């Protein structure tokens, strides 16, 4: 009997999945490759490229305005990543491991920013923080507020991804590790010590030790 791995329907599904993955990669990569190639043109955006040059990169990094904008974007991107990742991962773990009253309402509140138009979300942030000053510091014009506004969209995405990931974890393994070693998040030295004691016991209790 042929293995289920090589059944015609399984082979067809794997082929379709591979073709779809290749299509997505090319769909994303081709515009990036074209843009990078055209950035090496010394004149305008056109094909074929007659003269290769780094002119546009020199102009970019030679302009304080563009360099400041790049630095500002990087700071906001890193801050948004940190702000959205930590609560997103923790919330996904709590929702997957525990059941508590009001869970469905809180789930809806976490996911709601994804279903709101960007204009409405931006107006809400502007109305809520437009005139807020803390010790003479204008919150509305701060990078922190921009990071928080971006995190309203990013955090639900992290939450969905990590919730699906945590569902694939066999919690019996986590419970077994907790029972045998202690906390699964305990320092590795404790786990190593526990494993060394088990190995020592096995050696002492092996049949060869009684010869």
Describe the structure.
By secondary structure, the chain is mostly helical. The chain has two domains: 8-62; 64-169, Orthogonal Bundle (MetI-like fold). 70% of the residues lie in helices and 2% in strands. A two-stranded antiparallel ribbon has the order 1-2. A hairpin with a 2-residue loop joins strand 1 and strand 2. Helix 3 runs parallel beside helix 6 (143-167). The mean pLDDT is 79.
List strands and helices in order, with pairings.
Elements: H1 8-38, H2 55-61, H3 64-97, H4 103-111, H5 118-129, E1 133-134, E2 137-138, H6 143-167, H7 171-181, H8 188-205
Antiparallel strand pairs: 1-2
Helix pairs in contact: 3-6
Q: Give the SSE string.
A: HHHHHEEHHH
Number of helices: 8
| Rg (CA only) | 27 Å
Q: Any idea what the CATH superfamily of the largest domain is called?
A: MetI-like
> Strand sequence of the main sheet, in spatial order?
1-2
> Which fold name is given in CATH as the topology of the largest domain?
MetI-like fold
Percent of sequence in beta strands: under 5%
Name the descriptors.
about 210 residues; mainly alpha; MetI-like fold; 2 domains; two-stranded antiparallel ribbon; 8 helices; about 70% helix
Kindly summarize this structure in a few lines.
70% of the residues lie in helices and 2% in strands.
